[in-house]
Amino acid sequence: MSLAERWPLPDHHDLRDELLTAWDRPGYHDRLHLAEVLDRLELLAASGAGFDRTTVALAAWFHDAVYDGGPDDEERSAQWAERVLPTAYADEVARLVRMTAHHRPADDDTSACALSDADLAILAAPRERYDTYAAGVRADFAHVAEPDFRAGRAAVLRDLAAKPHLFHTTQARALWEPAARTNLEREISDLS
Are the C-beta atoms of residues 181 and 160 closer than 8 Å to each other? Predict the structure, then answer.
């Protein structure tokens, strides 16, 4: 199934096409990332995680729709969602997109937990894919000097690693937590 066919609404195809254009860029935050997040949401749902599938899928489509390595990428993505989505979805999708700036949803926020887990599941990728992901993140921040990037990236990873759990749903913890911890430890060590 093509990425276009995975659009969660039966209409608004012009918007879908604008988003596909926005995601068509180099670096990690590209169409492959969007496809992987959608794949992981399907896997979480199939594993029994309960969440609003349409709303969370729309949030996945928007969560990195604006991405240039700036501190307000998520905010600008959320504002785009608020401007263009049908009223029934706009506020909730924007809220979920904003959550991806910190990946700290409330435990009882099932939709935010699912989106956060699907977005962070790359941390549990096999080594080759993880290394490609890390290189893609570096490419996303090519405008940042190497020492500053290494310090910033290590700080982000240490912050994630300090959480009691990287993942918020029991399904994601079972699927991804051990491999993600291993990858984080390795990358933090490599950055030091």
Answer: no
Q: What's the pTM?
A: 0.94
Q: CA 133, CA 2: separation in Å to the nearest integer?
A: 22
Residue type, 161: A
Task: Tell me what pLDDT residue 82 has.
Answer: 98
Contact 70, 89 (CB under 8 A): no
pLDDT in tens, 106-151: 999 999 999 999 999 999 999 999 999 999 999 988 989 999 999 9
Q: Tens digits of per-residue pLDDT, 173-192?
A: 999 999 999 999 999 999 98
Residue 56: exposed, middle, or buried by beta-carbon count in 10 A (0-12, 13-18, 19+)? buried
Residues 104, 107, 54, CA angle at the centre, nearest 5°?
Answer: 85
